[in-house]
Amino acid sequence: MDPSKIPKKRKLTDKAIPNVLLENPEFAQDSKMYQSLLETERKLDWTMTRKKVEIQDALSRTPTTTRTLRIFLSNTVSGQVWQNGGEPSTTNFETGEGIPAWQFRIEGRLLEVANSRHRNLAPTRKFSTLIKKMVIELERDVNLYPDGNIVEWPRVGHPNSPLDGFTVRRTGDTPTKIRVLLYLNHFPEQYKLHPELANILGIKEESRLGVIQALWSYIKLNGLQDKVDRRIIRADDKLKPIFGGDGISFQMLPDLVNRFLVVPDPIVLWYTVNPGAPPPERPQAYDVEVKMEDAAMKGRMAAMLQSSKESGATLMKLDEEIALLAQSLHNSHVKKVFLESFAKDPAKFIQTWLESQSRDLESILGSGPTEGLTVRQEELRRSEFFQLPWVEEAVAIQHGTNLAARGMQ
């Protein structure tokens, strides 16, 4: 026999206990406890399902967090007079050896989140992945140092792999001021608000979605929706210059917000290189906030949605065992009622049982002492269909067709 055609055994899923047992004083306490457990299980299942839907919705929006980026500025020098004991060194112009020079170094790393476990730490991101653009400006005389006083690093389209830092090397022995402009690579992308809108919402920099939500919160808080048509936003005295009128439709809010968003200001850092003195023992450090994707949170949320096969199989096995026990209680109750009725009055019980079986048999066969009166009225109503005048002719035609088909074979 083909195993695939073997009917699968139907699993029991009903875990309810018969009401007769629940109302029995002997099992009142146990029954109440069991019912409480079933109610708790239903609430827990509903809560877990709701939380899973909320997590799936949150994953579609990508969770974000704010991390601290620590930037280090330092420098080294080479070929300086003070390094050679006050005597000029031999200079090789072909190799560059002996020429006074200095190197400016800028590095960065993300600080670890406080109270975070090691296994929850996401892979460390390189410094170059956290900035979109960097400009280093050197305040030097162009006539004396024509080798370029502006160094620019654009992240977009850069062929190199991620870097932990950058080094700028220049020749010279005079103090030089350096200005570093950093454009951070936020996620989601951040924008600077125009002062008119920033003064109303009370925020200076935010993502596009954050600005729209803040504006909508201001509208809801001040009741600026039209009383009749809720799609119309009425402007108050502060929003009239923003809207350019008395009101706009709800669909125009994103376009309106875009007109008041500009590129945020860069992070400006200053550093002075003095080749005539030993470099500082410790680098200068600056902390800036950067918004980025919360990979650790996303991983934990995704893990919550992936239930273990072993735990799922264990829960299913426990549910089947509970259902079997509930069915066993039901069967035991039926047997108990059967035997108690038989023991109370055997003759009357057997007579009643035989009458019941007789009625069931008459209902199935549609005949007997009651002449089929126990058959359901719906079946009797449908039986009149076969007594219509054309039924006999239709049966004859069908029978003739079957005989003709057999003859052709």
From TrEMBL:
PROSITE patterns in the cross-refs: SWIB_MDM2
Family matches, as Pfam families: SWIB
Record domain DM2: where: 186-263
InterPro entries: SWIB_domain, SWIB_MDM2_dom_sf, SWIB_MDM2_domain
The protein's name: DM2 domain-containing protein
Naturally occurring in which organism (per UniProt): Candolleomyces aberdarensis
